[in-house]
Amino acid sequence: MLQQPAKPDLIFTWGNPSRGDDALGPAMYELLQHEALDGVDLLTDFQLQIEHAIDLEGRERVLFVDASTSASAPFELARLQPEQDASYTTHAMSPQALLSVYRQINGCEPPPAWLLSIRGYEFGLGLPLSTAANRHLQAAFGHVLKLLDPARPADRDEHIVIPD
After folding, report:
1. How would you classify the pairing of strands 160-161 and 61-68?
2. Distance between CA 29 and CA 14 in Å, rounded?
């Protein structure tokens, strides 16, 4: 079977839909699936794993999206650098460790990557997405659409924290 070439941009979300606000990543994936996103592939999973380094091949840009208990509300956007941390030896990896694995496998730098951390509050098993997290999701969704289409106006209420 012939495999489709990778689109230039990848949005990779992850999280567990059964653990309250940990569902923010998969919820973003669901929202983006309803958009006409030219040149963008969407991928979601429960966690990042070493095998996902292959999904970064042939990309020009990567946006990782996950829930966070420490991000400022509604979300933070940060540029990522490859970094080998302790997570590369576990089943769940950090995006920085995944970028490092990509560099090791391919012998070159990974595509430019960013992490969109959406603030969540309640992560208990069986909980639904909290009202506050859903508001943060909507703000983050609007920002992602703006990143993909700079002509689109940003939400006026957005609070974007971009760490150094």
Report:
1. unpaired
2. 9
User: CA of 158: how far to CAs of 4, 7, 13, 70, 150, in Å?
Assistant: 36, 28, 20, 18, 15
Nearest by Cα to 32 from 133, 156, 130, 147: 147
What does the CA dihedral 74, 112, 30, 137 come to, rounded to 10 degrees? Answer: 0
| Ranges assigned E (strand) in 104-158 | 113-119
Partners of 63 in the beta sheet? 11, 114
At 94-139, the pLDDT tens digits run 999 999 999 999 999 999 999 999 999 999 999 999 999 999 999 9
Q: DSSP strand E in the chain: where?
A: 9-14, 40-45, 61-68, 75-80, 113-119, 160-161
Task: Give the residue among 6, 35, 54 at the shortest CA–CA distance from 147.
Answer: 35
CA atoms of 114 and 32, how far apart (whole Å): 17
Q: What are the structural domains of the chain?
A: 9-161 (3.40.50.1450)
Write the pLDDT tens digit of every residue in 44-53.
Answer: 999 999 999 9
